[in-house]
């Protein structure tokens, strides 16, 4: 049995669409599962249900072998969670957070102090432990949040967009710690993210969710292989020639969603086409400002599955416009 | 210590700690009622000459009002903090632990009680500095604290219920002016029999706050007025019961964990 087993999970909100629309997934023990999707796709609602904070409308799920509806207390005892936006009390210190949460978990005395000190050291907050959280940086808050989630030695860890808003350095530090937890401590990690590189760098397997449904699932390499071919993105010298550029590129592959000022195609043949493309553009007199050749990424997977690019796809309203 | 008692203790501790670390939230709750006491007793002391006015200084008469204002501040304090916890997601953090819902509500009220007692001590000190005496003596001061605690629980529970129902700090703050209007439509400025306007007297008669003011005031200026105390404690208990029932109902809606 997997550490997380989800079958036909649904959550409907009053007067709203189905935030989660019948998802199935299995996460093996010790695996890092990346749940990837844009804002409003249903990631956080799924996490709230799996962490027992929100009852599902339909479907079943077990976490650490316990039913999320019938055995809520047992599930909560086996999981740790760092939910969105590191919910901390800015008037309390890091150590006071540890004490409060540890006490509510029934930990006390020397055990709690030792465990707290260990975790604070592990996340690099020993020096800041007695400072009020209001003065912490975004990265420090996330690290404290992670330490709090780990306080009672959970077997399954839920991280809801753990690095949103973090600088690259803090993000990498958090990735290292999460990877270490899975590798060395055998903790199962369910991670939601809207960052492709995060899922790519960290997850053993990725499920892509859009409009409440899982559209594709697999290892990052499998997913990228499913898209197959490389793509090329070209920015013309003269933006007025963009339409000519697109027309010239058309015979070489399938057009992809564009960022402003450039044209992209998924190459029919592969990298070998590039020389022919350059010659064709030269013949048309279209100057090249920049040419980027890209191996398939998870963004390409997302694009292929949903017809939209994940990068900058924003919230639901934006989705509707695209 | 039982699990519930331990949970209540740590949640209360946190509630008190975070309030003490927000001087901007606690200083007005202490300074404002004391200022109002000195201002109103300075301006309204002519009322002492009204036939039927108790044979005490207006300052002694008005001292009871500070305790009422303190109780109303308790509503805001307990509720606003909880609304903030809901808004930031801190409540979810707590909900993921084995914390019981009862511990959350009682813990929050525990914080309100500690602050209520602290406020009451400040008001009493201000009263003594202003020359007030407590007619019911030391025993009366203890009963006064008991009433203050009961009012902190009652008004605090109303604030907690509003926070759990709305999850919105502004909505909780919105209770504050309503309670203040109720306070001014009570016997804070004059005894019931001396209120000249008929509708005002009628509103003050049905206003539960009147009976809380009268009970606190009786301890300060009358001595042991058992009927007034019984009605005052009865009203305080009723408000506490109402607040608790509303909080419990709102908690079920807010804490949907399985």
CATH architecture of the largest domain in chain A: 3-Layer(aba) Sandwich
Tally of alpha and pi helices of chain A: 12
Total number of helices of chain B: 10
Give the CATH superfamily of the largest domain in chain A.
P-loop containing nucleotide triphosphate hydrolases
Shape of chain A: elongated
Q: Please give the order of strands in the largest beta sheet of chain A.
A: 6-7-8-3-9-10
Share in β-strands of chain B? under 5%
Task: Provide a descriptive summary of the structure in words.
With 322 residues, chain A is of the alpha/beta class. Chain A folds into 2 domains: 4-218, P-loop containing nucleotide triphosphate hydrolases (Rossmann fold); 227-309, YebC, transcriptional regulation domain (Alpha-Beta Plaits, 2-Layer Sandwich). Chain A is 38% helix and 25% strand. Chain A contains 12 helices and 14 strands. In chain A, helix 3 crosses helix 4 (109-122), helix 4 packs across helix 5 and helix 9 crosses helix 10 (273-284). Chain B starts with a helix and ends with a helix. The model of chain B has no long low-confidence stretch (mean pLDDT 91). Chain B has one domain. Chain B has helices spanning 3-20, 23-44, 58-88, 90-95, 101-129, 137-166, 169-184, 198-206, 208-222, 226-254. The interface between A and B is medium-sized, with 33 and 25 residues.
Layout: helices, strands, pairs:
The complex is a heterodimer of chains A (322) and B (258).
Chain A: E1 4-12, E2 18-27, E3 32-36, H1 43-50, E4 58-63, E5 66-67, H2 72-78, E6 79-82, H3 94-104, H4 109-122, H5 138-150, E7 156-160, H6 168-185, E8 188-193, H7 196-202, E9 205-210, E10 213-218, H8 220-227, E11 231-236, H9 242-249, E12 253-255, E13 263-267, H10 273-284, E14 288-294, H11 298-306, H12 316-321
Parallel strand pairs in A: 3-8, 3-9, 6-7, 7-8
Antiparallel strand pairs in A: 1-2, 1-4, 4-5, 9-10, 11-13, 11-14, 12-13
Chain B: H1 3-20, H2 23-44, H3 58-88, H4 90-95, H5 101-129, H6 137-166, H7 169-184, H8 198-206, H9 208-222, H10 226-254
Helix pairs in contact in B: 1-5, 2-3, 2-5, 3-5, 3-6, 3-7, 3-9, 5-6, 6-7, 6-10, 9-10
